[in-house]
Design brief:
InterPro entries: P-loop_NTPase. This is Uridine kinase. It comes from Ezakiella coagulans. The protein has one domain: Rossmann fold, CATH 3.40.50. The protein is 39% helix and 21% strand. It is built from seven helices and seven strands; from the N terminus they run βαβααββββααβαα. The protein is α/β, with parallel strands linked by helices.
Length: 184
């Protein structure tokens, strides 16, 4: 099962995904940031900075198997690839901005969009990024906002405001029955 966890920078996507992974056996997390475009690569305009083509080609076949596997993660800060282990799991959460892209519609089982007040997001990003804060504010906040205005991808997602809402939905009996899954 592939679940996407989208939202604007600083909305809490990574924190929520890590918490789910640590508290619920069978969940594994893949970061969309590991699939950032390299300089000069042709981009899918419906996926922002997320290289959805590479994700589909290299990762989606592995997800269906449920076993652990390595990915070619890209570190955009130093411009290099490295091997990253993804553990076994029956639920894979793809976490990051642009993951609700229409390009993943035929692969995604369920999508969530993390809602968070802009001021709170700015405080979080400033704390996380330090001196790079203004770059995030002037570039990434603007890019993400324009992307959502253009594609309205959140309309195909369940909007959540906090961890409890997200956990209740993922672990809820209704979802488990629909998808015929067991969360151990």
């Amino acid at each position: 099962m592939l679940i996407t966890l989208d939202g604007f920078s600083g909305s809490g996507k990574s924190t929520l995904a890590k918490k789910l992974e640590s508290e619920i056996p069978g969940i594994r997390v893949i970061k969309a940031d590991d699939f950032f475009y390299q300089c000069g690569e042709k981009r899918d305009k419906r996926a922002g900075n997320f290289n959805v083509r590479r994700f589909i080609k290299e990762v989606t076949p592995q997800i269906k198997r449920g076993s652990g596997f390595f990915i070619r993660a890209y570190d955009c800060r130093n411009g290099k690839f490295y091997k990253k282990w993804i553990p076994e799991g029956n639920i894979t959460i793809l976490e990051g901005s642009y993951t609700s892209t229409p390009s993943l519609d035929s692969y995604r089982d369920l999508g969530f969009f993390v809602n968070c007040d802009r001021r709170e997001r700015e405080i979080r990003v400033k704390s996380r990024e330090g001196d790079n804060y203004l770059n995030f504010l002037n570039r990434w906040f603007k890019d993400e906002y324009n992307f959502e205005i253009k594609f309205r991808t959140y309309k195909n997602s369940v909007i959540v405001n906090n961890y409890n809402e997200l956990r209740d939905y993922i672990c809820g009996e209704k979802l488990l029955k629909i998808k015929n899954l067991q969360v151990r």
